[in-house]
Structure formats: C-alpha cells, structure tokens
Write a sequence for this structure.
C-alpha cells in the first residue's frame, strides 16, 4: 500500500496498521479546537467518509489541515521497501548554524537556571536541503517504513502550492490512540544518540536510563499527559518508571500510559487537541516555553512538532507527534529536530542529539551531514 502513495495522498504506516487516504471531499482549517472537533465530526456524519485525516500545526493560532478523503484503504503493518537512491547530493543550509544553535541552548539553560517558574524548553533547529529536481516523496516512503518498523511513517498533504507541499516523517511518538473507551498515550522524552557498536550502544542506553537530567526531562512530559487525561478517564495506568525504546538513530525514555474513558463520546481528535503541545515538543509551563521558543528559534515550525493522524465518526483515531519530519515543497526539503533543554543541559550534547534525530530522514535520503 505504501508503494501506492501519490502526491496529495495521506499515509500513516504504523507498527500494526497502515492507512492510505486519497482524494478530498472537504478540508477543515479551523484553529479553535472545539470548533474543529465539531466540524470534523459533522462532516464525517454528512459524508459517511470512513475517516478524517491530517495535521495540526505547532502554533495553536495557525490553521490545521484536516481532510475528508474520497477513498480510504487500510491494512496491517506495511511491507518494507528499498531506500531511494539520490542522484545528486543536495545543497545543505542549516538554520541556524550548529554553533548558533548551541549558543541558543546555552542562553536557554541560563534562563532555566534563573527563572524558577520555567522547567523545560524544547529548542529546535532546521536544515534546508535543495535538490536539483522536485523531491519524489513516493520513492522515499518505502525506505522510511523499512527503516522505522516500530515508528509511524507519515506523509500529509499541506495544501495547494505549485508542485505540492507535504509533511513527511517517521515519528516514534504516539500522542493518543482511542479504540472505543480505551486510550493509549506513549510520551517520549530524554534521548541519546545510538552507540557506534553494540557495546557502546548498550552503554549509552544504560547511561540514559540512569541520567537524572533525562529522567527529569521525561517526568515533566508524563506529568503533563496525565494531568490532561485524568479528568477524561475512570482508570489511568501510569508505569512508575520509564522504559527504553530505540529508533535506528536514537534511544529514548518512554512511558506507555493507558486509560479507560468515562465518556466514550470524547473523540481521539478532542483528546489529541487537548494534549497538544506536550512538553515533549514545547516545554513547561506551555505558554512560557512557547515564548522562549519564539525568541530563540529563527524559523516558523509550521507543522513540525504538531500532530498527524486520523479519526473516524465513532471517535476512534490515532494521532502521532509530528517529529523526525520535513516539509517538502518542489525541490526543497526543510528538516526539523528539537531537544528538550533542562537547567543541566550541555549544549554540545543537545546539538549531537538533534544531529542524531535528523538522521531519521537523512538516512532515508542517503544524505550525510
Ligand atoms: C522534539 C523532538 O523529539 C522529542 C521527542 C522525543 C524525545 C525528545 C527529547 O529527548 O528531547 C523530544 O522531546 C524531535 O525529534 O524533534
């Protein structure tokens, strides 16, 4: 099914299910979450479409893009495919330069140490890749799925632009899945680049699990997710300590939170909108962290660190955090990667972590930094 993706389609290929949506009956771009949920719900009933699909941006005032597709195909875990071979290396423009990012981390660390009200800020950087020819997203997706079997590979159309505009990525982070009255959220935070050989890899993973800085960085995310979900759930199960999960390039601390809804009419989209943005992509407290991000990131995040997924008329759905991704427009790709900054963060380590996060897409592109 992944091989059938065409520009303009929506794809979400996860560990157990794949969804490919084509065509467009309607678009909802309403930023107000309550209004968005209501409009999508009404359109799903009016059109009898099986699902709505799309993306919410990082910025709460910006327009989301949810689509009622014309046709939807669903299957199990996607089959894997070969990595695309790129003929020419792209021109690479970091935004900002790596040294400037490290400097910004240093300034945010200083701020976190002096402002007791601010606990965590996620600071991101971008890399622009300019190719000679328009990027063929369809040829990238099979390799991305193959390389990220436990993650969620996605491609979402971002609306009209000459040559199209899309968000593509492979996220390891499930924001929210609702199946009937059962909900699951699997926040990730606290990361380290994978080791170069098995022994080194084991060592960095053990160090991550033992790191007070990473445990603290993870804890604020779990606390925030629990605080949002608690009022909606009659039962919420939260493991006492995080587990380790790995992507091909990064180890993460991970907590799988499960719950049972009090009111099964609360949709997956409503819950995802309530959770977004968690401190895994923004910080704590949210408003203060947003302000620090606006001050230090020299670009608009757009849909990076937003939410991507689907929901149906019954309220079921699956929404993942839009990370390890790039916005693609014609021959240009803008890749994003962020890291959770804590008062004891080391700028060089956060820079290395974002480098490793970029590798999710760079590996699929066959591009080395
Ligand atoms: C913000 C990103 O990752 C988040 C998810 C997992 C681990 C993270 C971390 O350890 O900083 C981030 O919170 C990103 O990949 O751009």
């Amino acid at each position: 099914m992944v091989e059938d993706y065409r520009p303009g389609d929506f794809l979400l290929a996860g560990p157990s299910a794949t969804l490919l949506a084509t065509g467009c009956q309607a678009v909802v771009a309403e930023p107000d979450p309550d209004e968005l949920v209501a409009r999508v719900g009404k359109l799903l009933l009016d059109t009898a479409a099986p699902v709505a699909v799309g993306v919410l941006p990082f910025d709460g005032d910006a327009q989301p893009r949810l689509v009622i597709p014309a046709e939807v195909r669903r299957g199990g875990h996607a089959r894997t495919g070969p990595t695309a071979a790129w003929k020419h290396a792209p021109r690479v423009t970091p935004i900002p330069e790596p040294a400037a990012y490290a400097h910004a981390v240093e300034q945010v660390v200083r701020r976190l140490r002096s402002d007791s009200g601010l606990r965590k800020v996620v600071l991101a950087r971008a890399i622009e890749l300019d190719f000679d020819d328009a990027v063929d997203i369809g040829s990238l997706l099979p390799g991305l799925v193959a390389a990220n079997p436990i993650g969620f590979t996605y491609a979402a159309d971002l609306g009209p632009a000459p040559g199209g505009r899309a968000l593509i990525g492979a996220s390891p982070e499930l924001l929210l899945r609702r199946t009937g009255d059962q909900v699951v959220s699997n926040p990730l935070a606290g990361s380290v680049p994978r080791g170069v050989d098995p022994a080194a890899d084991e060592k960095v993973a053990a160090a991550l699990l033992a790191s007070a800085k990473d445990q603290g960085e993870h804890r604020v995310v779990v606390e925030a997710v629990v605080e949002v979900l608690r009022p909606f759930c009659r039962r919420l199960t939260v493991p006492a300590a995080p587990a380790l999960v790995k992507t091909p390039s990064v180890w993460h601390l991970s907590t799988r939170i499960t719950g049972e809804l009090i009111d099964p009419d609360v949709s997956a989209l409503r819950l995802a909108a309530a959770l977004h943005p968690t401190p895994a992509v923004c910080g704590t407290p949210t408003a203060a962290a947003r302000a620090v991000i606006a001050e230090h990131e020299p670009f608009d995040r757009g849909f990076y660190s937003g939410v991507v997924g689907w929901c149906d008329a019954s309220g079921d759905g699956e929404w993942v955090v839009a990370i390890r991704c790039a916005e693609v427009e014609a021959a240009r790709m803008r890749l994003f990667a962020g890291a959770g900054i804590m008062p004891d963060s080391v700028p060089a380590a956060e820079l290395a972590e974002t480098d490793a996060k970029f590798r999710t897409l760079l590996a699929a592109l066959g591009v080395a930094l």
In short: Residues 347-365 form the longest helix (19 residues).
